[in-house]
Fold Gfo/Idh/MocA-like oxidoreductase N-terminal domain-containing protein.
Amino acid sequence: MSDNSRRKFIKQLGSAAALMGAGPLGSLAATPEKAYLLQADKPVSSNDKIRIAGIGMGIMGFGDVSCALKVPGVELVAVADLYTGHLEKAKSVYGQHIFTTRDYREVLERKDVDAVIIATPDHWHDTQAIAAMEKGKHVYCEKPMVQQIEEGHAVIETQRRTGKVLQVGSQRVSSVALAEARKRYLAGDIGQLNLVEAKIDRHSALGAWQYSIPPDASPKTIDFDAFLKDTPKVPFDPVRFFRWRNYQAYGTGVPGDLFVHLITGLHFMIGSKGPERIFSSGNLVQWKDGRDVPDLMTAIFDYPETKDHAAFQMTLRVNFADGGGGSEFTRLIGTEGVLELGWNDFKIKQHKLPVAPGYGGWDTYNTFTKAQQEEFVKQYNAKYSAADRAEVKTEESAFRAPEGYDDRYDHFVNFFESIRSGKPVVEDATFGLRAAGPALAVNESYFKKKVINWDAERMKIV
């Protein structure tokens, strides 16, 4: 971006962001040259009341339902969960009047339920989402949208046929920060994208899915057979029930829990439909607790050139055995800058190459004779103007959402607005499979030890 264009952008920024005094911004680099506080959307006006039900009231279930109820005009009427304790907890949090059941199908039969929030283990997502839409319910489904790639096509077809709204719950795509990052990317602030690198490293039991198990967990309080669905039958095991992410039968491991967030955000920002080649490698390093998925995983994605972006490579990594205590970043690296994403903040560092290549330093110039050096400098100065030879100054800008901003709230606002007005959701079933498919292909590559070729248009392994 030229200096003139940059000045014009800053002058026009008022409607999108407020200029702040430069200074530290939490996780952002200290003392950036320019800092911007992004503005959240205006308050939502409620028209028709939307009555919701929660299916699966674990960590994400309670979080999603509580967030959804902050949106004006939304009311909770029912919840379903296979653990009695979750149903009792729901009544204590949301009121004794709500209907509770272990059988989600009873929720779908209720005439007073307009939409459901599905936050069950991954292997239940497609079945419950399809059943809900068939019963006339709108669906908010946690990520990844499906556990198996082929299930995604059935979800897409059901959404198309029924006309029901389906929003996938990877809320980052509704963030005001990601929307602004997309604008900055499309404006060319980092030049041509050539590499994306991201990592999410952790070093804690809870971060490695070692979730707490309630003392009353038993065959009496948990419908374990229903939980198993069509997976191999095993004796009652509360560890499998509450720590389901650790098992291939019920979850999707690191790719489905974490990579899918990164892929979703990237696809939203650059308008990509997906990679063409995927390869992954990993290991089970520390958490040898009976799980059959790795706790360390690295994946490489090759994205082809399209009308929306140049060819680039993406590398994603998760390490649950990081003795340094854990850290994370997501960087989009271009030929003229780097865009580093936080969750609801980001920064851009720009460093453009000068027209003149320079000489000296670690260079063959120093091996020339004095006469050749003088002749080289003469020719160099004749070829490149003073402007061409000028040292490039690195520029940094930092953007963040307001304190207390919640992108999940905006994601639910988008979902409920779509139900009321027909406005498209930001993450429908097709978008959901374009994000989930490559993540699931990472598992395919890991367990089969081979490169996976992916058809991003048809969303299939080839």
Summary: The domain at 3-38+173-214+234-353+392-461 is CATH 3.30.360.10 (Dihydrodipicolinate Reductase; domain 2). The chain has two domains: 3-38+173-214+234-353+392-461, 50-172. The radius of gyration is 25 Å.
